[in-house]
Design brief:
With about 130 residues, this protein is mainly α. The protein has 5 helices and no strands.
Length: about 130
């Protein structure tokens, strides 16, 4: 049962379960109270609490992803994306991180490709 369950995979699973329980607690409350779910989004009530919990867990998962991916790719100052999300919005900083992540992946692929081409031209083996 524990095959392939890394600490990061367990973290994602715990966040998923907590997010499900957190949001559906408020969803069930809205159903039991026979609330207007869409109307409550505009005013207040269980729908707003459900949405708040939902966004909170997405933000926590996104912050963990930023840290893990930045370390894996050797990106510097990834903590700035998290700090900036408190000043601006996570809806801004997370896609910004994804854009910078894509640039890092592309740069890595280009450098590996260049090393491979160089190795072919010189006849030396290269570990990528």
């Amino acid at each position: 049962m524990t095959k392939n369950w890394t600490p990061l995979a367990v973290t994602w699973l715990v966040l998923a379960i907590a997010g499900l329980v957190g949001t559906w607690t408020f969803n069930a409350l809205a159903i039991v109270q026979m609330r207007d779910f869409i109307g409550d989004l505009v005013t207040s009530g269980p729908a707003v609490s459900s949405l708040t919990v939902d966004l909170l867990f997405v933000a926590v998962a996104g912050c963990i992803l930023i840290i893990v991916e930045a370390r894996r790719l050797g990106m510097k100052r990834a903590w700035l994306y998290i700090v900036l999300s408190g000043i601006t919005a996570f809806a801004f900083t997370f896609p910004l991180f994804l854009a910078m992540r894509e640039r890092a992946i592309t740069a890595r692929a280009i450098s590996v490709e260049a090393l491979s081409v160089d190795a072919l031209s010189t006849g030396k083996a290269v570990d990528a």
